[in-house]
Design a protein that fits this description.
By secondary structure, this protein is α+β, with helices and mostly antiparallel strands. The protein folds into 6 domains: 193 residues, Jelly Rolls (Sandwich); 87 residues, no CATH class; 81 residues, Elongation Factor Tu (Ef-tu), domain 3 (Beta Barrel), CATH 2.40.30; 304 residues, Glycosyltransferase, CATH 1.50.10; 154 residues, no CATH class; 73 residues, Immunoglobulins (Immunoglobulin-like, Sandwich). Helix content is 17%, strand content 32%. It contains 18 helices and 73 strands. Strands 1, 3, 8, 9, 10, 12, 13 and 15 form an 8-stranded antiparallel beta sheet that branches. β61 and β62 form a beta hairpin. The protein starts with 11 loop residues before the first strand and ends with a strand.
Length: 1185
Amino acid sequence: MLALPQMAFAGLSLVLTPGATATFADPVQPLQQTWRVEFQIHDWTIPSTITLAGKVFALDGAGLYTALNQDQLWILSNRDGAQCILPLANRTNVLVRVQRDVANSKLSCEEWNSDGGGYAQVSGAMTHPAATTISGGSFGSSLTRAQLGFLRMFDTLLPEGSRPPTTAGLGNLLNFTFDGTGQDTSGRGRNITLAGTSFQTTPNQLPVALPKTDAAPSWSNWTSFRAGFPATLDGSASFSLTDASDSVSYRWQQMAGPSAVRWSNRSIAKPVIRGLIFGTYRFRLQVTDASGKSVSSDLEVGAVATDDNGVVVQANPAADILFGPMIAFGKNPWPWMDQMALRSAEVRSPYLDTISPPGWGTDQPGTISYELARPGQPAETTIASEVGASATTITVANASKLDLTSFPAIIALYRPGSYVNIEELRICSASGNVLTVCYDGRNWRAGTYLRTPAPQLWAVGSVVRQFKMTGTGTNFLSVFCPAGAGEEGQIRTAAGTVQVTPGSNQVTGTGVVWSSTLNTLRIRIEGTHSGQPFVFFAAITGATANTLTISRPWPANADAGAGLTYAILVPGRTIARGWIRPDGTTGRQGADLSTCTSDTDLYTSNIVSEIPGTMVAQHWGFSDSNWVSDFGPNFYDEVLAHYAGYFRSGYNLFRDNARKIGDYWGTNPSFDEGWVPNYGRRTSGTGVVAGAVLDSRDRNWITIRKLASRAVSEIFVGAITPGCDADVRETAYSLSWLAMAALFDPVDTGDPAQPSQRSYWKAQLARALPRDLACKGPNNEYPVSYWKDDATRNLTMTKDSTAVTGTNIPRSLCNFVSSGTINVTNGSTAATGTNFSKQAKISISGKRNGKPVLLMTEFSVQSPNSITMESPWDGDSGTYYYQAESDLWWLAFAKDFTDHENADIIYACRWVDSSNIVIDRPWHGETGTWAGARGNLIGYGQQPFLAGIKVFAMNLASLTDTGSVATSYGELARGTANWILSKGFDPDTGGLHYARVIAGCEPKLNPRLNCTFATYPAAKMESRTLNAEAQNAVRVVYQANPTPENKQFGDQFYGAQWGKLGGPYYDDIYLVPLESDKTWAFKWLGFMFGMGMAHQWPAVRLGGVRPPDFRSASVTFNPAGTPGAVSARIVVTQPSGAEATYACPSSPCSVSVDARQGAHWYRISYLNSTGAVLASQEPELLELR
């Protein structure tokens, strides 16, 4: 029944081309039949249309269908309602295994590149398995273009992550090798009937070396070896794709590592090695197949010392203080955390290579001189006469304050005390105090950051400033303005030319290739007005292939033009300018840039600076990214996250990632070793401390001491002087810097009054304690005021009245859409009423226990007279006033942020006009002047996840000494940790509340808008994400009270995040967003693995690391064998990497070893009478018996 005769050669693939099809027998499989299908597919072309009709093959009797679609391989188990979609992008030749696991109701699909790499695994649930009467198998379709190297079917399953399928395998239900025939070699005779198909040589039928560690998980080729104990390498997954045999022979060797391991046998699949210590090893496996072809592959793997429970034994006790107990990589009973920790590091590494080392560390040509404007200093004057929005001349009070030695010159206008709504002008000439604006010199920067959207009217007394740097031998144009003089920006594209029309904001390109990716960038166009040249700048607000829409029109009185030169600019490169600090040291601070007017004249856009005085002949560099920001590379301490990965794995990738950021973190110009103040969550000092204490980054101490000094002196975000309404996380970070300086500063004079050394920092903790005691809430929480600085002020409110008056009241204060009456029932989410329409939320002015209350909730509209609320009504049943609003924010009225009582009472309002609003119920307070503020939280209370940072800081402070200060901080840490877990935790979601204590969040009877998350899966994930920042709380509580109940709670708290692959506790919710590589480009890496300390709980629940088990061991040596030797020095290296040195006048010599760590290394050096080394032996293993 074969369409082609038997062919005598091997190594072929079945070629499927559009219209070439084939069929074969595929009998009906029983409903409960377990099966495994394996195949090789290569050299495919994805159909141009989105369709599942591009069939590769179908096994109708088994219910399996495969198709090429959208750069993916779609695998459907039609009888089960299950599917997998495997990625094909950037692949050309893959091995695939599909398994129908009836017992676990799962369709499992795995994929490898033909070289054994690129592993991917996807599963689908068998939602409705059903019997089938359909039979028959087929290949190809009118759309299919692909080649199949083999196809086989088994009635058995393999564990996920097993060796990839090979050509030489033999299926017991079906076996096609396509070696010139369609014969089924399984013995079941399900031969192919071929119609128009052909065969071609299968590419890359070579051996594949796949070195792994023994029992490696499916998601990685390795997990960390336990240093000090025998370990097994595993090459058994290696194979050959030749037809004759998939077997290979093995040859292992060590290429790198901190010790030279001992081998049991280098020529077997699974050799045992001994002598591992902390660090990264690289092993090479060479395999040779039956045809004599060889290939090799390297495996890098970390080794880490642990106790018998898998808890890391650190070489430096400081690591235990900074990180707490650590579970070794690969020993976490919640393995998904290990998988994500490794994946996040792998994802970040290539990006970090692009920013490290950063540009600011390289001096650019020449030097710069500048004096930044400050009141009363040069480069600042005022407007002497009113400047209209269309004025082209500016009269200033004193032009001599400005640098007008060259034109164009740049000046900035702004109102006294306001650092927003700045207008930036180009000046082309000056006569006395009268400055003449260049053509288009008022509109050119409109709408950029902090700039006015259009030219403004400026009153007498408005400030005029200049922010200029003058270079000597500099190349500002090529570094900052490569398109030419004007705005700063790197060129995205300048290909082709453009055409413009006066008064139009449309730009047409010729010879261009544009797309929507250009949106938000800037365009520079060289044009003319009345024949005179000028340069035009605007933002791009829309882009097609050859048309741009820009933020402002080409000037109406400019010349029309075609064939004009243009450049699309990517702004954002900043200057790192050298300066002399007040302490005489040299630093570099960053500045955003406005304009280059020449290679030696450069203007910044910053309105303020930390740099005082005149700076002359300073070096300079540049930066292409703002490291200290919400999108910077160290938000929530990514450096700490990577160091945590390193010290629990021994794997250099983590360490190298930490260094790529941490080695430059202190000196980055947005931070300048602490001289530029910033938010604590952006400053991320703990990883910097880890670098100094654990990784010999000694220069970090400049930064650490400056941070600790700021913690002492800062009045808003320090650890000592801020009021209790200061942001709890920022003051907590300051406390942590102070505590770490008190713990680790290598300088200690013993004088508590002498700054910048350990005894001084300890004394400052004693000064910080009274603030933390005073700010603590009644239940050990740390409540703060949630109030907006941009509140609408000077509102007149009358007691018991709903009318509110004021001036310039913004419509956004109310965001009212509609109102009506609503009928609600206690405990019910259903409500009826009038005039319902879908909006962001509904605010119901009702009563609870007879007292006024406002309930805000999201809702869905069932009809104009019926809605379903997300949160049940928990007030008194009745008919009330409601209003629907267009946002989810709250509204309250108070005097200021210190007015906790009034800020805690939430209202709704309706905007009448700019002078009048109406609130939802009579004003409760006294008649007078008040401020109104909106925000996602308004009032006085605590966000539990932020309290987790507070616990971290106070726990560090408790470790600094044994006195009363340390004791008090330990009590505070335990109290706040208990509050987080008892009040901050929501058992309905398995995660944290977003906020508690705030009146709008209480009582916690039902989910509260912006306080408590809903219980559908996506909302539970949001809630559980917050658990990361509170992991320290679980640790503190359990270590203080290690009861079974607390252990069970900790398992639930941790497993709610990391339970995807199972663990002591898990459910059907896990943090799905972490599966996307894009997640790790933002704050989440530090959030989870840095300040989140995801390594802690799995070790804490085991009681932490076991104590040392020190034992004596004897080492014999023979000084007589070395002429002149009179004694020996023995260096013992623990598996952790810690070393101890022993002076040994005679043999044998007693040394101490830690039995929990296993085998140690020792090295004998022979000394003469003066102590000089005469000879050293190779290291030897000291085995424990």
